[in-house]
Amino acid sequence: MEQSLDRTIALLSRTPAALDALLRDLPEEWTRGSEGGNTWSAFDVVGHLIDGERVDWMPRAKMVLQFGESRTFEPFDREQHLSQTAGKSLEQLLDEFARLRAENLEELRSLNLRQEDLERRGRHPTFGVVTLSQLLATWADHDLTHLHQISRILAHQYREAVGPWSRFLGVLQCQGHSSM
């Protein structure tokens, strides 16, 4: 499937509610637990998503439209959120993420992007030249990656409790990215 702005927005608009339904009011044993070692908790993932809303997706989209390939995106600090979430509750983070996502999608819609806009090119610090369409498709897949990650993190909390069934539970076998 090719990236479609309407389909991308349809998916992006659902992520805050999906996270809210899954995580709000869960005991901290679920939301602050990780997969061990240097991995994130569900709380950390929501903080990371908030940081992306602030400094990644829309700032980069606007940069592509304004500067094209002449300016390189600022590198994204994947750990920056760790200091910004200190002292906050998961409920505060879920509310903040929902608000920021709604604002970003409203701004994205207001750009009235045409196909030629989606084909505009920007410069990523690692990948080099990328299109606005690729950036927007990545935003949607980034959400799905972290929804998958959160389900894995939550399942990991019961990895011992499920006993022998663990070998039939794909979520416990998956080795996706969770490390900081």
TrEMBL record:
InterPro entries (UniProt xref): DinB-like, DinB/YfiT-like
UniProt-recorded name of the protein: DinB family protein
Domain DinB-like: 12-150
Keywords: Coiled coil
Pfam families per UniProt: DinB_2 (PF12867)
Organism: Alloacidobacterium dinghuense
Superkingdom per UniProt: Bacteria
Coiled-coil parts of chain: 90-121
